[in-house]
Amino acid sequence: MAKPPPAKKSAGNRGRRVPDDAPPPKRKAAWPFVLSLLAIWGIIFGAIFCSHFLSELPDVKNLLSTGPTRDVTILDDQGRLIARRGLTQGAMIRIRDLPDYVPNAFIAIEDRRFRSHFGIDPIGMARAGITNMMAGHVMQGGSTLTQQLAKNLFLTPGRTFDRKVQEAMLAVYLESHYSKDQILTLYLNRVYFGAGVFGIEAASEKFFGKHASELGLTEAAMLAGSVKAPTRYNALADTDASLARARIVLRAMEDTGFIDDGTRARAQATRPRIVQGSGTPDSGYFADWVLSRLDGFIGNSTEPVIVETSFDLRTQDMAERAVDQKLRSEGPRIGASQAALVAMTPDGAIRAMVGGRSYNESSYNRATDAERQPGSAFKAFVYLTAFEHGHTPQDVMHDGPVNIHGWKPSDFEGEYEGDISLTKAFADSSNVIAAQLTDEVGPKEVARTARRLGIASPLEAVSSLALGTSGVTPLELTGAYAAFANGGEGVAPFAILSIRTKTGKNLYRRKPTDLGAVMSPQNNIAMTELMVETVTSGTGKAARLDERPSAGKTGTTQDSHDAWFVGFTADLVTGVWIGNDNSAPMHKAPGLTATGGGVPAHIFHAFMEDAERGLPVRVLAGNSLIADAGDQPPLTRAVSDKDHQPDAFERILNGIFGGT
Q1: Which of 4-8, 453-457, 609-613 has the lowest mean pLDDT?
Q2: Tally of CB atoms within 10 A around 448
Q3: Could you tell me which of 643, 452, 479, 620 has the C-alpha nearest to residue 549?
Q4: Are 567 and 553 in contact (CB under 8 A)?
Q5: Are 225 and 246 in contact (CB under 8 A)?
Q6: Nearest-CA neighbor of 249 among 212, 215, 223, 211?
Q7: DSSP alpha helices (H): ranges in 227-307?
Q8: pLDDT above 50 for 225
Q9: Percentage of the chain surpassing pLDDT 90?
Q10: Residue 69 pLDDT greater than 60, yes or no
């Protein structure tokens, strides 16, 4: 019997039995669901990724409300300009106050699509990426002006992935809070132009002697071109290179339609007058140090001021030349990359200050801020303390192996001299005898003596203090030696002589200070004898001057991490340090040692010969005291509290505020 045909489907046959041979129903595609799920997770992970950076973004409000900072002109003792500081954000220059070609020069060379992008320029980034890939190295950058502003305002100069992401996010963030003109205003007032100046107003004053609102087209192009490499292209460093770079900027301005061909040609034919300041290349170290101390003299005043100092640009030039020549010729041979020098009169007036081999490369002032171990240069305080406790230069002690409470100091290269006088022990820089003297009088007494003479850095009163294991700065160590040079009077190094406003109002004038004696005349005679012997027959022979009395002490730390020479004549006290910023040890070279008697002594000699040339020859203060002392027995007692000897901190305050 034949089977009946299958029933037809209809809208009303739901629930009916589906025949076994019916095709399976079509299923809906799953990919829209998968894509939606991936999108949701992408949003979640993207939010987490962005929140990592957003949580660290700084506040960008009120950037335009920054008030003017202090405008300071710093002069040397002859009225010559050392530096002008404080114009970084002073009287913020608005875009509306500048000729149109000034901001346009920066836009043309740095960010042509500045007016149209949202803080990031994808087209520029792609162009830079292709150019760099074809060249095989980095030739172009894709950062916008807004990104550069974000970096200058908030970020470190590193090229890490995190920093680049933060830079991009900050750029977008800034664009959402400020108009294009406001961003240009912030950028032009913060960007670095080289020669130690930030901001277009400071650069205009520094290079061209005029306000930014008075800039010509060629001058604007020179400034815009310098931001790529400020040290190389600033007008003072190389005027020809700056003008060559300006021609590239002018061509870019023509290409973008900001100027026409005739205007470009006239600008290229113009050579602006460059203001050549009288400051030396590295006098910026001193200028920065003076600026950092002004608050103690004039408080928070923002009125433009003129600061007269004890500095001497001629002496500074000699100091820079001596450091550069010796560090360049001898430094590589012993592995020394940095140096510092401080020169002052015996009463503490600073005459020269070199904080490193190049201020443009590093503005870190090693003369005032770097605490380095003085090594044997610290022995001056050990011997002075010993004399105050009864010893004399003629006393004989044994220079040989010794055990001091488990510590076994040794002399340089393990060479011992047997029984020798304290004069010879000091001149030859015996570690063993300095350690024995410190153990005898006590490390605390040695530390107390050093503080009395001006060492303000923390001193660890342990046996090894005898060998200069506590860090000091070149400025304070040189200031402490000034007491030996002037006959035993306390010294607080100073430089600021007077401060007045540009309208002529006197704000400060230094008063003579009398800090009192920090050692007896007889002990000053004894210490002078030791230091003269050091440059006559001891470790400092290379520092001895040819035609005038000189004295001093070498200093070398263990493994030759630091090397010093500190010495003086009747006119100047000079301290020299060499080493490496990372404390890497130096090493010997043929005919040259990495000790204080090597490069530091050579720098001292070269500088002092130049600085003293033409001055009358005078005896050292300690030697002149000998005639006054007559047949009186040596006075070896320590200076007592009743003699009112101020410690280092008190003398620093007195030096700042003119107290007595």
Answers
A1: 4-8
A2: 18
A3: 620
A4: yes
A5: yes
A6: 223
A7: 230-233, 239-255, 261-268, 284-293, 295-298
A8: yes
A9: 57
A10: no
